[in-house]
Amino acid sequence: MTDAPFRAEQLAKYHRREDFSCGVEVLDRYLKQQANQDLRRDLAVPYVLVEVATGHIAGYYTLSSFGIDPTSLPEGEARRIGRYALIPAIIIGRLARDLRYRGQGIGELLLVDALRRCWVLSKQMGAWAVVVDAKDDAARQFYERYGFLRTIDDADRLFLPLKTIERTLRQRLGDEVLAALVPGVTF
Ligand SMILES: CC(C)(COP(=O)(O)OP(=O)(O)OC[C@H]1O[C@@H](n2cnc3c(N)ncnc32)[C@H](O)[C@@H]1OP(=O)(O)O)[C@@H](O)C(=O)NCCC(=O)NCCS
């Protein structure tokens, strides 16, 4: 049992999406009109952060598999990885917090939940980094606070190596908690 005020779960039909409003029309419309369709078509898996007491959606994000063009990485990173046509990754396609939940650390909760989920996935399939496309300067600054780095050809496309995420999760959660997230996997 947990008494956490918010719960992250995969988007389902019973979630009340109609009144979600993050202030960015295209992100609101995506949740209301397209997210379920993308889920059905295996194009993206949307996750919602639900306020347990009210059932309101406080925020959401989507995950999809992705390939990074190695020429878009800074020289040192690309050299360390070696010659690959595409480098396997996971993209957080969209991430948004409802305006009613401003100033409550919901953006951080969403991002940390997404990164933890990406790390678990990366122990079951190859994925070198998590990628995000920031829609403006403010979004880019938000991601850079958490260590995301810029690609060299597109200032809005950022990446964070999964090894960095693993190191941070180890520090925050400890080895035992991490191991319980991926039973039977050595890391
Ligand atoms: C970006 C977004 C998710 C941040 O959500 P939030 O709930 O305000 O974020 P938090 O309250 O968890 O803030 C976490 C930290 O990031 C900082 N931060 C939040 N928004 C920021 C921004 N736009 N620029 C720089 N820093 C930001 C906060 O100050 C906080 O730092 P602190 O703990 O030192 O105070 C939210 O503003 C949003 O949904 N915006 C519209 C959609 C969007 O831009 N999505 C981004 C992907 S395109």
Question: In words, what does this structure look like?
Answer:
This protein has 187 residues and is of the alpha+beta class. It has one domain (6-180): Aminopeptidase (3-Layer(aba) Sandwich), CATH 3.40.630. The protein is built from 6 helices and 7 strands; from the N terminus they run E-H-E-E-H-E-H-E-H-E-E-H-H. Helix 3 (106-122) packs across helix 5 and helix 5 (162-173) packs across helix 6. It is globular. The two termini are 28 Å apart. The chain binds coenzyme A. Coenzyme A is lined by residues 22-24, 27, 95-97, 102-103, 105-108, 134-135, 138-139, 141-142, 145.
> How many beta strands in the DSSP annotation?
7
Q: By CATH's scheme, which homologous superfamily applies? A: Gcn5-related N-acetyltransferase (GNAT)
Gap from first CA to last CA: 28 Å
> CATH topology, anyone?
Aminopeptidase
Structure characteristics:
alpha+beta, seven-stranded mixed sheet, 7 strands, 36% helix, 25% strand, binds coenzyme A
Question: Strands, helices and their partners?
Answer:
Blueprint: E1 6-10, H1 25-40, E2 45-51, E3 57-68, H2 75-81, E4 87-97, H3 106-122, E5 129-133, H4 137-144, E6 149-150, E7 157-161, H5 162-173, H6 175-181
The structure holds coenzyme A.
What is the gist of this entry?
This protein is α+β, with helices and mostly antiparallel strands and 187 residues long. Helices cover 36% and strands 25% of the residues.
